[in-house]
Design a protein that fits this description.
The protein has a two-stranded antiparallel ribbon with strand order 1-2. The protein has 7 helices and 2 strands. It is mainly alpha-helical and 152 residues long. α2 runs antiparallel to α6 and α3 crosses α6.
């Protein structure tokens, strides 16, 4: 791969720009791929929470966990959960407990395979050690600037 600048010049580049550019590229690619199979990223998040739950989760639990991801917000997350219920991928009982349907499981498997492909695409030529270092450096930037971030 050809980099934008020499190592000497890269060390002077702003992290804010490059982290933003990486965010935009990854999110745009992920969202376009998910749209290609008929879903959104927040719908995928919610479906994955229900599909992978060790114990049954309620709508409130799923919504509270996901609403701050990429600044989605509570109203949008609730709407996305409504959509996957309307799609027939999950059900909600009177107590707000969510369950995955057979159709939802089949769609989840399809979307999970796509996510695996996207992971491999993003990580091409990047070792686990480089990836780990990158995440630790980004978390350090967040810490050093007084920010807060946490992912389940």
């Amino acid at each position: 791969m050809e980099y934008s600048h020499s190592d000497t010049d890269l060390i002077k580049q702003p992290i804010g720009y490059w982290s933003w550019a990486a965010y935009k590229a990854v999110i745009a690619r992920t969202r376009a791929a998910l749209a290609g199979i008929g879903t959104t990223q927040p719908q995928w998040w919610a479906l994955a929470q229900v599909a992978n739950a060790d114990t049954v989760k309620t709508r409130d639990e799923v919504s509270r966990l996901l609403r701050n991801y990429l600044d989605t917000g509570p109203e949008a997350m609730e709407s996305e959960i409504d959509t996957i219920i309307a799609q027939g991928w999950i059900t909600e009982d009177a107590e707000g407990r969510l369950g995955i349907t057979a159709e939802g499981r089949a769609f989840y498997d399809k979307a999970a395979a796509l996510q695996d492909e996207l992971w491999a695409e993003r990580h091409a030529g990047i070792s686990d050690e480089e990836y780990l270092t990158t995440l630790k450096v980004l978390q350090r930037f967040i810490h050093n600037t007084g920010g807060r971030a946490w992912h389940h």
